[in-house]
Amino acid sequence: MEWAPQPGSAHDFVIGRLEVGNPRLAAPREDETRAPLSMTIHNNGDTSDTLVSVTSHRLGKAVLRILSTQLVPPKGILIPPHAAVLIEPRRPLVIFQDVSGAILADREKITLLFEKAGELTIEAIVERADSNRAHGREATGAGEIR
Description:
By secondary structure, this protein is mostly beta strands. The chain has a domain at 1-11 and 24-38 and 55-76 and 111-129 and 141-146. The protein has strands at residues 12-15, 18-26, 35-43, 49-56, 60-67, 70-71, 77-79, 83-87, 93-96, 107-114, 118-127. 34% of the residues are buried.
């Protein structure tokens, strides 16, 4: 399913009862090959869902991690019902590890795969090294790892 912007915001994408807000991709510095993806995932439904995988045609497959040193178990990051989970460094993390070359675009298309809701293609704003990151404060923080 392709992304659908929410009214009033160009940075929210919806699939079923899930809403992905403010996706941002940190472009790697010259000497790095890793690009973390930050976002808030809101689950407005009555049942949980799980972020299973993240891919990009240009950047390859991302790795899901609990913290920077711990891989997420195979089932993914649980998004509880009626909750928001913040995905960013020092929390559950999504990171493209083998980025070759500079990310020149201002936005990157990225596909999220949820266990129940299915596939959602989002467009993440690319942040350069000097940019500030901003996410909603309403997120509950770390999602449960499954």
